[in-house]
C-alpha cells in the first residue's frame, strides 16, 4: 500500500472510531444521569414521633430514610388540622397540606412508591386527639379522595398501597371503623388486644407507653424479667401478624437511649420511636440488624 493510501485509510479508521465513541460516551453519561448517586435504603424500624413539629413535616423524615410518620389531628369546623394541642392549631396546617398532597406528589414522582424503588408501604400514623368518632369519619372522607395512595380493606381482603394509614389516639374511633366493610385505614391496638381474636386486617399495629410496661430507662442492665416480658409481647404480636411499637422510650441522646434501642431491635420490635431524626438514622445505619433496610 502506498504511503498516501495508508494515510487515507488510517484517517478514515480514526474518524469511524471517533463517531462510534460518541454514542458510547453519550450512553454512559445518560446511564449515570438516570441512575444518579447510590440511594440509601429506607429504614423499616424508623418512626417519626410528632413528625409535624420538624421544619419540613414529612419531607425531613423521608430524607432520613424513615418509613413511618405520625401526625396528630383535631377536627375544627369540618377540617382536619395538625397540631399537638388546641393552643397550637393553625388553619393553614391541615392534614391535606402537610401529608396527603405531599404524599400524592411523591408517589407520582416515584412511579408508585414513597421512597424510590421501595415497594413496602410507608406508614402514616394518624393520632386523633379528640372527638374520635367524628374525626375519623372526616378522615375517612378525606382519604377516599386519595384512595389510590392507600392500602385498603374490603370484605376481609387487604390490598397493599404506597401508604398505609393507621388510626391511633382517641379510642372512640374504633366503633365506626369496625362497622365498615370497606375502609382506607387500620386501627392501632393496645396491649389488651394481643390475646384477642381481632384480625390483623383491622389491627395490624399494637402500641404501648414504654413506661406502663417497663421500669428500665437504659441505665445499667436490663432486668431479666423485663427483657423476657418484652420478648413475650413482641412474640405475641408477631404470632398474630401484628407489628408492635412503644412510645415514650428514652429519647435524650446518649448511652441510655441507645441501650433501649438495642434491646428493642434484639427483641424484634418493629418501630423505634423518636423526635431525633438524624440520631435514629445514624444509630440504625450503624447498629441495624441485616434485615433492617429493605
UniProtKB/TrEMBL annotation:
**Which lineage ranks, top first, belong to the organism behind this chain?**
Bacteria, Bacillati, Actinomycetota, Actinomycetes, Kitasatosporales
Could you tell me which CDD domains the record lists for this protein? PI-PLCc_GDPD_SF_unchar3 (cd08577)
Q: What is this protein called?
A: Altered inheritance of mitochondria protein 6
Q: Which InterPro entries match?
A: AIM6_PI-PLC-like_dom, HAT_RTT109-like, PLC-like_Pdiesterase_TIM-brl, TAT_signal
Q: Which UniProt keywords apply?
A: Signal
This protein's species is Streptomyces yaizuensis
Annotated signal sequence is: 1-31
Per the record's keyword annotation, is Protein biosynthesis included, yes or no? no
